Amino acid sequence: MSAKKANLSGELKKYFGFSTFKGQQEEIIENLLNGKDIFVLMPTGGGKSLCYQLPALISEGTAIVVSPLIALMKNQVDAVNGLSSESGVAHVLNSSLNKTQTKQVFDDITSGRTKLLYVAPESLIKEDYVDFFKDVKISFVAIDEAHCISEWGHDFRPEYRNLKSIIDKIADVPVIALTATATPKVQDDIQKTLGMTNALVFKESFNRANLYYEVRPKVNVDREIVKFINERKGKSGIVYCLSRRKVEEFAQLLQVNGINALPYHAGLDQKVRVANQDKFLMEDADVIVATIAFGMGIDKPDVRFVIHYDFPKSLESYYQETGRAGRDGGEGYCLSFYDPKDIEKLEKFLAQKPVSEREIGLQLLNEVVGYAETSMSRRQYILYYFGEIFDPITGEGAKMCDNASNPPKLKDATEDLKKVLELISVTGEKFKSKDLISVIVGKESAVTKSYKLEQTSFFGFGKEDKDNYWKTILRQATVQNFLQKDIETYGVLKISEKGQLVLKGELEHSFLIAEDREFDLSQTKAE
Ligand code: ADP
């Protein structure tokens, strides 16, 4: 072991009391201290904070930590100040401070006392702050929740967009960007926007092997949820609903059914909200019924189930929200109710938004539909979404979803895969799934007309089968890495290396699929 490594372990023990680093923390810290730009993608709970806190504590000068939420900043600062024997090495700079407090922060930085300064992005852009930072010693800049930079992330914040130019003005120091949600698209966006395409990337698996994923048709949902919770008496759980009204109604319904549940949403009186959250954390309430306002920064390790009464707007949100179950590694049941009509409602809602936001929103919803309706391993689907290839047979947690517990009948679709790959190849890899399906089943559309695809020999070659069948083929060929979704255009399907081998006849690979589930609930009798 090098002297430096031994030293870092010593510092870890001294400040945090831990004997070993978690995952890739040590390598990340070493590289940051050596002046490299770094990009960390680690699921929640992976230990991201330490990757900048420890180097900040042992470096000369102040590390600037950009963080989006004032409420979370305070927790972080308290945590750091609790670590060090000389308290007061971490401070906050944001709009909640008055003049005197702000001056105190600046004095502490100038005197070299502040090791970590948590700043809201909107504060960082202030001219006189930038001027001040130019004249003091900055060790590095950490950008927490870096997905806020991307419109494709689940929490876009326009102020994050300008960070690169501000940092450049302040100092020439290394930058470490961290996030717990990054699809390849978001990752690409973050690196480009921050000018970090050469950064060292540290990515840990997003697989949560102890979580069980199930999607049920949204029929008799109230009764189903009451039954599900009653079978888990005394266990902690969260039920997510989309609207505040639904949260209150459903919390009441659970209470009437003898379940110890409380509501939580941003429209409740602050005191009630905090009290309800505390009761849930302190185990005085078993279940919290909440909008997505609940959960950010809440660390309750023994949440045993997360139920989605309504399906979320993106798979990232789904992953984050379900991820609040089973933090301690124990049981974590993620049950979601799905009705295509809910998706239509969300689509209508998007129709009122500006074009770019609408386009992105629709793409994200498309992924949600794909996930909800799939018959393949849900874990494989989610992990693919985060850019990870997962083996649905041998991968860790492979058995942990409804589709794995009740495997659907598989069909060998190798010949159809080859036909699809040939079509994509001869048409020059420029179409999205929807347009390819039009060609396959022989349905005219604006795109088929403008490229005169009706006149080709392959138009309608698959019309014996339903659209849904071909949709499944394209989705599963993508998830199984025969096709790749282009990052720039998000959606244009290209042939991967593995797909090229199939085309050349160099890869004999049987392509087994299970057709997506049909979710036409209009015929189903609800209560
Ligand atoms: P993230 O920001 O990735 O969600 P945190 O930084 O909050 O994760 O860390 C999650 C938990 O792991 C915290 O309770 C933290 O104290 C703990 N932790 C971090 N690093 C280590 C380590 N090297 N050894 C033991 N526990 C650690």
Automatic annotation (TrEMBL):
Enzyme Commission number(s): 5.6.2.4
Entry GO MF terms: 3'-5' DNA helicase activity; ATP binding; DNA binding; four-way junction helicase activity; hydrolase activity; metal ion binding
The UniProt record lists the keyword DNA-binding: yes
Domain Helicase C-terminal as annotated: residue spans: 220-366
Signal peptide positions on this chain: none
Gene Ontology terms: biological process: DNA recombination; DNA repair; DNA replication; SOS response
First and last residues shown, out of full length: 1 to 527 of 734
Cofactor(s) of this protein: Mg(2+); Zn(2+)
Protein name as it appears in the record: DNA helicase RecQ
Keywords assigned by UniProt, alphabetized: ATP-binding, DNA damage, DNA recombination, DNA repair, DNA-binding, Helicase, Hydrolase, Isomerase, Metal-binding, Nucleotide-binding, Zinc
Entry similarity comment: Belongs to the helicase family. RecQ subfamily.
Reaction catalysis annotation: Couples ATP hydrolysis with the unwinding of duplex DNA by translocating in the 3'-5' direction
Record-level GO cellular component terms: bacterial nucleoid; cytoplasm; replisome
Record-annotated Helicase ATP-binding domain positions: 29-200
Broad class of enzyme this protein falls into: isomerase
